[in-house]
Amino acid sequence: MSFVSRKKNKLAEKYLSRIENACAHYRGKGWGGSTVNYEVQQIRDICPTKEPNIAIDIGANKGTYTLELLKTYPELTVFLFEPSSTNIDILRKKLEASNVRIEPFALSSSTGSAVLFSDKPGS
Prior knowledge:
The protein is of the alpha/beta class. The chain has a three-stranded parallel β-sheet with strand order 1-2-3, covered by helices on one side. It has a domain at 48-108: Rossmann fold. It has helices spanning 3-27, 36-46, 64-72, 85-94, and strands at residues 54-58, 77-81, 100-103. The chain is 45% helix and 11% strand. The two termini are 25 Å apart.
């Protein structure tokens, strides 16, 4: 890869990241690991005087959001839903607390089975 194309790729990554974060902001939630702190701050803003009791992490991936929640609210009970067996193993190693429950399936508006597609294990 030439210097010019590497420079273009870095520039594209920079702007794509900004667009991704802006879209997440306008949707009112995060997208990927780059907005986790913002998402937890939104909870603090919504509940400034009362700590939440339960949280649900749908599509928990590798647990970044849940870990940040538990830093802020250590007594929180968290239900994680993650269909990837690779990520379930990671979650079980990272989150051994009794107030965390890992559910090894995805959530959907319909009942059934589906194939989980990814470009690499755990993505």
